[in-house]
Amino acid sequence: MFINHMVGMFYHPKEEWGTIHQERYSVWHIFLAQISILSLIPAVSMYIGTTQIGWTLNGVDYIKLSVNSAIPAAVATYFACWVAVGFIAYSIHWMEKTYGGHVNMNECLILTTFTATPLFLAGLSALYPMLWLNVSVGLAALIYSVYLLFIGVPVIMEIPEDRAFFFSASILTVGLCTMVGMLVTCVILWDTLVPLSYAAL
Question: What are the angstrom distances between the C-alpha of 43 and each of 36, 52, 123?
Answer without folding.
Answer: 11, 14, 8
